[in-house]
Write a structure and sequence with these properties.
Length: 315
């Protein structure tokens, strides 16, 4: 594996999950592997988990870590080719990424979608420009359309907590006050469709994910029906893909409540975090024994470490 930007970069999914679980048992077993190697983590957007867990994962592999909030700390970057740069952007990604590549052996990039122009966002221009110009492996720290480190974490967490060989996993849309990216649900669906799980997506009409992500998942528009017999409830808000970037629904019937959790097979509650309490999920659920959101976030370290180890071995 060279770049890590989607599930398609992973040759053997269950081997990657097992590597994460193995690293969780012996975090320091490969301290020599990344010695004298540097990872640069570039953030165009806010982060708590991705920033700290990836930094910790790199350190446990012996790597040196540099973190930069692009835009806030460095120059505004122009991403498009051939433009006359007489606006507010001082540097082109052609130079910026190439220079960063001089300092780093692996580069991580977080860049959310603008949620205005669907074609632009789904072209993944920022990620692709870094792949083109850095000359070093690129790890997605959540791009315009995907969040693969989160999805690998989610699969590791499901593997740890499942009680049956093929658990029923439900991705349920939930309300939110802001228009959010489709990255987490796109990616989660893409990974679940490749895993050995019984996968359902529940969302209001108008919230269909792009078909390349939802694939053959079972779809329901009923906020309750999918909960029946579920082993894992994975909640996430996203804005519409069809009516791009819009909020079409704010019906609180889509919030994850204790009443709905009671319909499940004693399901575990998952969310990538950050989460809006009592908008996306009731306190009574996130504070219950069935909530594994903290363990899930903890597993971000092992997902990142599995990915970085695999990339380091290919250098
Ligand atoms: N990295 C995890 C999720 C990041 C982002 N959430 C957010 O922006 C939440 C913002 C808020 O609640 O104000 C998303 O949905 O893709
Ligand atoms: N889940 C996740 O990616 O969290 P951060 O946005 O805080 O990194």
């Amino acid at each position: 594996m060279y770049n890590f930007t989607s599930v398609n970069d992973v040759q053997d999914l269950s081997a990657m999950v097992n590597l994460g679980l193995q690293l969780k048992k012996s975090p320091n077993a490969f301290r020599e592997l990344g010695k004298y190697k540097t990872i640069g983590l570039l953030f165009f957007n806010s982060s708590l988990r991705t920033r700290l867990s990836t930094q910790k994962a790199a350190q446990q592999l012996g790597m040196d870590v540099m973190v930069m909030n692009v835009g806030a700390d460095s120059w505004q970057l122009e991403m498009t080719e051939g433009v006359i740069m007489n606006g507010d952007k001082a540097e082109h990604v052609a130079e910026a990424a190439a220079v960063i590549g001089q300092y780093c052996d692996i580069v991580g990039v977080r860049s959310f979608p603008g949620l205005v122009d669907r074609n632009y966002d789904y072209s993944e221009q920022v990620l692709n420009q870094f792949i083109k110009y850095t000359g070093k492996p690129i790890v997605s720290l959540e791009s315009a359309t995907r969040h693969p480190l989160q999805s690998l974490t989610d699969l590791i967490t499901i593997e740890e907590h499942k009680k049956t060989a093929r658990p029923k996993v439900v991705l349920t849309w939930a309300p939110h006050v802001k228009a959010l990216p489709q990255c987490v649900p796109n990616s989660f669906a893409e990974w679940m469709n490749r895993a050995d799980v019984d996968f359902t997506i529940a969302h209001p009409e108008g919230y269909e994910l792009a078909p390349e992500f939802s694939g053959n998942a079972r779809i329901t528009h009923d906020p309750k029906a999918a909960f029946i017999g579920a082993d894992f409830i994975y909640a996430k808000n996203w804005s519409s893909y069809k009516d791009y970037g819009k909020i079409l629904n704010s019906d609180p019937a889509w919030m994850v409540t204790k009443e709905k959790m009671d319909l499940t097979n004693n399901a575990k509650f998952m969310h990538c975090l950050p989460v809006r309490r009592n908008v996306v999920v009731e306190d009574a659920v996130i504070d219950s024994e069935n909530s594994i959101v903290i363990q899930q976030a903890g597993n971000r370290v092992w997902a990142a470490q599995a990915v970085l180890k695999t990339i380091l071995e290919s250098l």
